[in-house]
């Protein structure tokens, strides 16, 4: 489960003082000195019971007249700072089942009951309310191929809540949680760590009944651009897609290249394309391709 960071810090500071501490020692979750500094900075901010409410009221007063940080505000996540080095600050609102937004949008809109890991690390603190609950699991990221339906060795750790003042470090590609709505509306504060390389590190969803992987949760813009370029035609786009399918170091982008090209062909040609993917040497690609070929065969039979 996420690493609990014990803290008896009682000092209080505001958002700017918190950011100054993070500027002085940039947040790097794998460095103990940096982690200690980040935990202290976040805990002092969490001890400030007024800053977030004051900030929200100020934004409501300013409204559309200011082109500042309010553009990063959403119905659940509130971005509290721009990127500073490789991290930024965020607040998250977690509605209970009694809230109107929960009843209107359902649990999936707030990722409740959707077991998942993260392809990034982040430090979180319970700021307000009883906190969301989580069933926590761990797994060995390096041992999985990443195809849908793959059964993983998920190890249950415990169920706990992110209550006020609690500090936890979610570790990239290790900690899995299935979140539960809090008993009443709650808020968490986060220091989000961003590594440019993490875009090629997959974030997965899981089914806890079967321990099977349900799919990748972080599609990249590169995949989208590739599909668009191939779909719009052009020899250069097709040449690049063929190269990516054969040689790109990311299995996920290799899969995207086959998916993009499969939309250009029908029948036996489509089956042959996925047969090529099945023989590519990638376990993930082979399993996904085999499922595509089974779907094609079923389509023929039902036609």
How do the helices and strands line up, and which of them pair or pack?
Elements: E1 3-4, H1 15-24, H2 32-46, H3 51-62, E2 77-79, E3 87-94, H4 100-105, E4 122-128, E5 133-138, E6 155-161, E7 167-170, E8 175-180, E9 186-193, E10 204-207, E11 212-216, H5 221-231, H6 235-247, H7 251-262, H8 267-278, H9 283-302
Antiparallel strand pairs: 1-7, 2-3, 3-9, 4-7, 4-9, 5-6, 5-8, 10-11
Please report the distance between the alpha carbons of the first and last residues: 48 Å
Radius of gyration: 22 Å
Describe the sheet with the most strands.
6 strands, antiparallel
Helix content range:
25-40%
Overall mean pLDDT? 91
Low-confidence parts: 67-73
- Total count of strands: 11
SSE pattern, N- to C-terminal: EHHHEEHEEEEEEEEHHHHH
Number of helices: 9
Q: Which oligomeric state applies?
A: single chain
- Structural class comes to alpha+beta
Q: What is the 3D shape?
A: elongated
- Order of strands across the main sheet: 1-7-4-9-3-2
The percent range for strand residues is 15-25%
């Amino acid at each position: 489960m996420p690493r609990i960071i014990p803290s008896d810090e009682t000092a209080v500071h505001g958002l700017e003082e918190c950011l100054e501490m993070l500027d002085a020692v940039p947040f790097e979750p794998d460095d103990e000195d940096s982690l200690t500094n980040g935990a202290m900075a976040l805990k002092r901010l969490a001890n400030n019971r007024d800053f977030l409410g004051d900030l929200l009221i100020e934004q409501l007063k300013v409204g559309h007249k200011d082109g500042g940080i309010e553009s990063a505000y959403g119905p659940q996540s509130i971005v509290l700072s721009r990127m500073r080095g490789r991290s930024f600050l965020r607040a998250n609102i977690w509605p209970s089942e009694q809230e109107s937004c929960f009843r209107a949008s359902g649990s999936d809109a707030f990722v409740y009951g959707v077991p998942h890991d993260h392809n990034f690390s982040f430090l979180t603190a319970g700021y307000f309310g009883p906190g969301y609950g989580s069933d926590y699991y761990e797994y060995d990221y390096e041992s999985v191929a990443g195809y849908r339906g793959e059964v993983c060795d998920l190890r249950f750790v415990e169920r706990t809540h992110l209550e006020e003042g609690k500090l936890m470090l979610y570790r990239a590609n290790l900690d899995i949680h299935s979140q539960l709505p809090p008993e009443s509306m709650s808020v968490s504060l986060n220091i989000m760590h961003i590594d440019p390389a993490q875009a090629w590190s997959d974030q997965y969803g899981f089914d806890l009944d079967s321990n099977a992987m349900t799919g990748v949760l972080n599609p990249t813009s590169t995949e989208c651009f590739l599909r668009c370029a191939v779909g719009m035609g052009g020899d250069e786009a097709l040449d690049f897609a063929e190269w990516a399918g054969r040689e790109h170091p990311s299995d996920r982008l290799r899969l995207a290249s086959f998916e993009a090209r499969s939309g250009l062909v029908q029948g036996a040609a489509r089956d042959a394309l996925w047969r090529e993917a099945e023989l590519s040497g990638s376990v993930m690609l082979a399993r996904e391709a085999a499922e595509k070929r089974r779907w094609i065969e079923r389509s023929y039979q039902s036609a």
